[in-house]
Amino acid sequence: MLHGSPIEQANRLFAQKRPADGLALLKRAAKEGNVDALMQLAVFDFAGSHGARDLPRGRKWLRRAVEIGHVDGALMEVALVANGSGQAHPDWTGALALLRTAAQGDPVAAEQLELVERMSVDGQGRPDALPKGEPLSKTPHVVRYRALFSPAECAQVAAVAGPMLEPSAIVDPSTGTLRPHPVRTAMAAVIGPAKESLVIRAINHRLAAVTGTSTEQGEPLSVMRYDISQQYRMHIDALPGTANQRIKTAIIYLNHGYEGGETLFEHGPKIAGQQGDVIVFDNVRSDGSPDPLSRHAGLPIVRGVKWIATRWIREADYDPWTYRPGT
After folding, report:
1. Residues 265 and 164 reside in one and the same domain
2. Residue 29, helix vs strand vs coil
């Protein structure tokens, strides 16, 4: 006889290599209205665990969980409606309506709503206006946008990423498994589509606007925290042997007040960003090949802590659900 919650029982079955039994148990519990079982089934479908990824089916499990009252599920649903995961198109207006409902009983949702309502955006969450870029270098091509994001927006990015921070890692091409990042020693987190709140979605829209690309070309926003002596050694952001190359990079400086940590281009400027500033640079030459002049580093931190967020932008649309570091 099985004991414990449906989640505990299912986990034991999965550990015994009985995934069909574990899924059947969760589905029975979900049918009876168990909100944790509903959320677990949704997460499995989003991640492609114990079967192929099925975003529309995951959305159905999630909707039922939200109807019963799952608070975190409500924020996840806002994100997925906004970015269009599991539905035909992104729906900013629908997501905003869901966020307003969630904000009535959830202080986290209320904080996000307050931030969004202070933004100057259109009906799709895209910016109404942009500051003029400041050219810093022609070759490599580097442009700075001062105060593109408010202190509150920067703090929100760090708050979303903070609980997910882990040592930087990259996929080993020979084994397909994660290994320590060879040149970046920071802690890092990726804000994937299930965590892409309306604040993050609007930030990604703004980055698309200043880079002259579509939001769908961007990888999920990567957030990095550098403590004393941590750094990102000289590298280029373009990837070897990929069919959908990283053509541009946008870096948001989420804070200032630290010493060291400047962004240094080997053949270009040395930049100490202020909170809310963004730099944008090209990673490829006119023929699409990696540009060696884009080599750059994040210098070691001497005092304090540095937070940045990076958006690597591809040549064509990118599926954020398939993201793996460095691929």
Report:
1. yes
2. helix
